[in-house]
Design a protein that fits this description.
The protein is mainly alpha-helical and 140 residues long. The chain has six helices and four strands; from the N terminus they run ααααααββββ. The protein folds into three domains: 32 residues, no CATH class; 61 residues, no CATH class; 30 residues, no CATH class.
């Protein structure tokens, strides 16, 4: 039975209870007897995966897609983990700082004409009017 809890960690007590014909309280007691942590309890692997996802720039702390692969974890749960574990909060802050730096100092840019993603060195800045500037590909 323990392997079932570990194989499907995101199943709720009610789902197990209806499947087995037990009360959800009895399922909770079984989990406790088998020393299986409750759904949504702190998991460092999941926390680090979420931080890496944020660091990659694909999501933020507030976006739902950041947590879509982790049904038992959401923004509130993740932020509470960060408060409880200071090293996790520091890793999150480093990831947010890295994303902010990448936004201000990109290494690649998508060409609006060709749609290609190229190194920033392939673009030049030209002034078109007194107040406006444009960034265009060198070869265009």
């Amino acid at each position: 039975m323990e392997w079932l809890f570990k194989k499907y960690p995101h199943k709720t007590l009610r789902e197990w209870a209806s499947e087995w014909g037990l009360s959800h309280e009895r399922v909770r007691q079984l989990r406790e007897q088998l020393n299986v942590p409750p759904r949504g309890s702190f998991n460092k692997e999941i926390a680090m995966e979420i931080i890496e996802y944020i660091r990659s720039g694909k999501g933020t702390v507030s976006t739902a897609r950041t947590y879509e692969n982790y049904p038992s974890v959401g923004k509130r749960k993740f932020l509470s983990w960060c408060k409880e574990h200071p090293e996790l909060g520091e890793a999150l802050q480093e990831a947010l700082d890295y994303v902010e730096f990448q936004k201000k100092h990109p290494t690649h840019k998508k060409c609006q004409i060709t749609g290609e993603t190229l190194p920033i060195t392939e673009f030049i800045k030209i002034e078109t009017l007194r107040t406006a500037t444009a960034v265009v590909l060198k070869k265009l």
